[in-house]
Amino acid sequence: MTSKRAQNLSFSVFSWAVLGILTAYISVIILTLLLRVDGSSLWDTLLSGRSLSTIRLSAVCATIASVLALLFALPIGYLLARKSFPGKNLVDTLLDVPIVLSPVALGTALLILLSSEPGKFFEENIASFIFTTRGIVLAQFSIVVALAIRSLKAVFEQIDPRYEDVAYFLGSNRWRTFLTVTLPLARTGILASFILAWARAIGEFGATITVAGAVRGKTETIPSAIYLGLASVDIQETLAYVLLLIVVAVTVLLAVRLFTARAAL
After folding, report:
1. For the chain, which residues score pLDDT lower than 50?
2. DSSP string of 88-127, one letter each residue
3. Is 38:237 a contact under the CB 8 Å cutoff?
4. Among the CATH numbers 1.10.3720.10, 3.90.190.10, 3.30.450.20, 3.80.10.10, which is that of 39-264?
5. Nearest to residue 193, comparing CAs of 157, 153, 152, 158?
6. What pLDDT is attached to residue 265?
7. How many CB atoms are closer than 10 A to CB 215?
């Protein structure tokens, strides 16, 4: 019994120690940034015309990309959660590729696609994406759609299908059941998925800069501004944008936890 208590105690000490080390590590990183930044320079940077334009562009593009991702993810996540079909594992694996693939690699693939003959025809006659704001949206969408699908699949898997069966039994069709029964039950998870997708989109850099570039005043997002700030050795400007992304990340994570906690009540 004494040996068991000692083992339990050692496991608890080990777990708490690892938690404390990692928490301290992340806290030190954030604290170091806060100590290095100049308060007046921070606000001057974030409130400048260029910064406001960059923040606005990032927010608008991330919102559009997240809405588009949600429109695709809702039916796909529901289908993967409810149905079995030939090749499902292969399809599920392909949809996960953007999650594990390097954003730069995905951006390069998009750039090659847009530079192909069909891509050139699309660029010249329908809509241009290379070095445009549309390219930002395309790159962000390509990154976050897989994340949205994965999270919404988990949301739909947690909803008891018997609610839908009752609606079918009462004469409701699939569209009406999905819109009036399934979506209301999943609303908290859908909102959380959108917030996570938006936060991931606004912080996306690799695919975005590959497809849309980092042209000041045109395709400069917040991560691109960080890159340009480092390139020009403007540390205070870089720190201002980094801290802004940290504030966004913390706010988003707290909001998601709040929504999920309310849903669990």
Report:
1. none
2. HHHHHHHHHHHHHS-HHHHHHHHHHHHHSHHHHHHHHHT-
3. no
4. 1.10.3720.10
5. 152
6. 57
7. 12
**Per-residue model confidence (pLDDT) at position 164:** 87
Question: Measuring CA to CA, which residue among 170, 145, 165 is closest to residue 75?
Answer: 145
Q: How many angstroms separate the CA atoms of 55 and 107, rounded? A: 22
> How far apart, in whole angstroms, are the C-alpha atoms of residue 100 and residue 48?
36
Residue 102 CA to residue 206 CA, distance in Å, equals: 8
Which pTM was predicted?
A: 0.85
Domain map (residue ranges) of the chain: 1-36, 39-264
Task: Give 232-252 pLDDT, tens digit per residue.
Answer: 877 888 888 888 888 888 888
Tokens 């949301």 label which residue? Answer: 155
Cα distance between residue 27 and residue 21, in whole Å = 10
**Which residues lie closer than 8 Å to 259 by C-beta, 6 or more apart?**
188, 191, 192, 195
Amino acid identity for residue 138 in this structure: L
Grouping H, G, I as helix, E, B as strand and the rest as coil, residue 236 is helix
